[in-house]
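Kindly review both lines to help learners:
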Amino acid sequence: MQYRRLGRTGVKVSEVGLGGWLTHGRSLVQESTDSVVTKAFDLGVNFFDTADVYNHGEAEVALGKSVKELRRQDLFIATKCFFPMSDAPNDRGNSRKHTHESIDGSLRRLKMDYVDLYQYHRFDPDTPIEESVRAMDDLIRIGKVLYWGVSLWPAEAITEAVQIARSMNCCPPVSNQPVYNMLQRDIEPSVIPTSQKHGLGQVVFSPLAQGVLTGKYKPGQAAPPGTRASDDSSNTFMGWLMTDETLTKVQKLVPVAQEAGLTLAQLALAWCLRQENVSSVIIGATRPEQVEENAGASGAQVSEDVWARIDQVLQS
């Protein structure tokens, strides 16, 4: 496993991180979560990402149980707040009140004294950025959070947060967590350049396009049983990815990966990591073997010719 600095900070995270959006505390029983987390740690993964809203807190509980026997200093734990956790009007958003109360809930579920990275899960137009910046700085100063970041924030909001933090002598955000993969490149024109300018690193989610870039879905065929696409409770955001046109292009990438000495999943992860502004790719896994395969993308040496061939296939 290779490690990269998180943005401009001095801390290093594994190039491949492990998330738990649809797995921890939901589709996986605790024993299975333990086996996936343990395999990831044994392979050198130190970056574990979760959120309070994932299965309404159960993902944090499951992750906390899985890492309880590991040395805390060997882990880089990230979680998030923003989404409603109850019907209460203030139990949502990026206000100082919700930020402070949410971190206490997350720490209680994780059974930890602090988290390494606390992220605003979305931009909140109802809360002044000054208030959110100060709230995160408060948490850093009292030791509940070491670094803070954002998720799916537009470039202009990232710039404003950094400028406000500097003007108030507060700690600025150090990371952004966006969707990024071969099929979804929206962050390239503005978010990546803005983040590079201000010292934020990307910790990208859905680098495999919800499993489509593993090649397991074939055009003209039903999704295999047991996969995310076959589960109506998990495939809500997959419709546009499952067209025959897209799946046909993905299948054309399989021989490209083979010639590079990689599986298609590994090639897709390495494609994300080709960007120096990407600090880590966050994978999801239900089995240890998936973690092992995906971890193989770290440090992969891929020629520029391969990236060019990928563009030719996807743009055809």
